[in-house]
Amino acid sequence: MFGWEYWQGCLLAMLVVVAYVAAGGMLSVAWTTLLQAGLMVAGVAALSAYVVAQLGGLVELNLKAARVSQGPFHEWLAMPWGPLDAPLVSPLFNFTLFGLTVTLGLAVAPHVVNNALAASSERHAKWGPLACYLLGLAAIMSASLLGLAARVAEADGLIQLEPHPLGGKWYDMALPTLADMIAARPRR
Predict the structure, then answer these.
(1) How far is CA 13 from the centre of its chain?
(2) What is the pTM of this model?
């Protein structure tokens, strides 16, 4: 952003982290991480709501996704979920994968547990896991909506993903490309 070399940016980031850890200890790390997590979750949630609205809303996005998708599950993409016995699209699969496995896995990640151990009171430690779960659920659902929006936007020709150096498309750039497209659109 400042025209610096990569190593200079890394060095500055390292110095900032060392400074606030040395100045404030573990509690400062916990507060900084909480602030960063809050900003990221709020940002991805706001961006997903805005992007979905710009692409016509949830119903329109779902119908377009069903139209452009292929594969064994495409017939159920225009519905909230597939039949109970269908793998990967059933409500039970979606609940266990996105509602439990991924979000609980995020809630017990080492860096999250580290912050939970820095809780300043029993009350904070008691409600911390639920807060981590809900933040993880919001982040996962918002990121999933953004992925779906990028898929539809690419199929509609609104964005063009660059080729990846190793072949295929550079799917990691879907969100920044989608954000650029939305930012360049005239306001309604």
Answers:
(1) 23
(2) 0.69
